[in-house]
Design a protein that fits this description.
By secondary structure, this protein is an alpha/beta fold. Helix content is 43%, strand content 10%.
């Protein structure tokens, strides 16, 4: 069996949904129903079908804000606006589409999607894993086995292993928690140390080793400005480490049940019916050209499928 078919593809669901919703604007059918998020997701799923023909995979969904992070920081993600009404209307259709493509979905109360993705990756230590997300937090789980597929501005997916993480951030995956604790994460409403940006954070970690070492022995920090910042911001740093570290210890592991991650063959008839109903004509055309959407054969003898979508 090839490595491609053995690879587990894990998708940060809402990250991809929001990305598609804002990338494709003002798309609706003749009934005035918004369809932009569904259209973008259909294109994305077809791209995965063509380029990442794995036998196992899942979409991970957030299930509310996690209580353990809110206890640490009541204002955690308080800066996030509510989901747009046009996207809320499309959520049932998005679930319908994902299921029709044969993908599994997981969510768990008290866990964010990032936590679930990290837990799933850890639970299959013998399998190569590819995580589709651009979330900075998830870079902490990257290894040679667990690699990111981060969306790029041109619509492709950039694979990131440890070397690519270091090239992008200046620190490796094992230092990402410390790095983010220092600079904070505005998207999650997590403040970092005042006046510490990415460049300074990299320099601090290079010279001091870790945030734990800084807070335990600030007197050993040679730079007086850094020493002052760490001393004044010790509580912030310690809280940030807890907020940013992904929670992989779960009471249940439903994805480990027999065939829980096994991808089903896409239901071509259902997909055409759904896209016809929503008047996604270009997607219907591509589905018709494929006749029936099946996982591509990864063997060298299989015919090469055309790049139908240019994504």
């Amino acid at each position: 069996m090839s490595e491609a078919s053995e690879t587990i593809i894990l998708v940060d669901a809402f990250a991809q949904i929001y990305r598609g919703f804002y990338a494709v604007r003002n798309l609706s059918n003749s009934r005035g129903e918004p369809t932009n998020a569904v259209f973008a997701m259909a294109k994305f799923l077809l791209k995965l079908q063509r380029e990442y023909p794995s036998d196992r995979g899942a979409f991970a969904f957030d299930c509310g804000k996690p209580a353990f992070r809110l206890e640490l920081a009541p204002d955690y993600k308080a800066n996030r606006p509510p989901m747009p009404e046009a996207l809320q209307q499309q959520l049932p259709l998005l679930h319908e589409l994902i299921a029709a493509f044969g993908w599994n979905e997981f969510s768990m109360t008290g866990f964010e999607a990032d936590d679930l993705l990290a837990a799933m990756a850890a639970d299959f230590p013998d399998a190569p894993v590819r995580v589709v997300s651009g979330d900075k937090d998830l870079h902490q789980i990257v290894t040679e086995r667990v690699r990111m597929l981060a969306p790029d501005p041109k619509g492709g997916l950039q694979e990131r292993g440890p070397a690519e993480v270091f090239e992008k951030f200046g620190v490796g995956p094992t230092a990402m928690i410390d790095y983010l604790a220092l600079i904070g994460d505005s998207s999650d409403n997590i403040p970092g140390l005042a006046g510490v940006g990415p460049k300074t954070a990299v320099e601090m970690l290079q010279q001091c080793g870790s945030v734990a070492a800084m807070t335990a022995h600030p007197e050993q920090i040679a730079n007086p400005k850094w020493r002052e910042k760490v001393t004044a911001g010790r509580e912030i740093l310690e809280k940030n480490l807890q907020l940013i570290r992904l929670k992989t210890a779960t009471d249940a592991h439903p994805w480990k049940e027999v065939d829980a991650l096994k991808r089903r063959a896409p239901d071509g008839a259902k997909l055409r019916e759904l896209c016809t109903r929503l008047e996604l004509r270009s997607v219907v055309k591509e589905l018709d050209e494929l006749a029936i959407v099946l996982p591509p054969d990864p063997s060298p003898s299989a015919p090469v499928q055309p790049d139908l979508f240019g994504l």
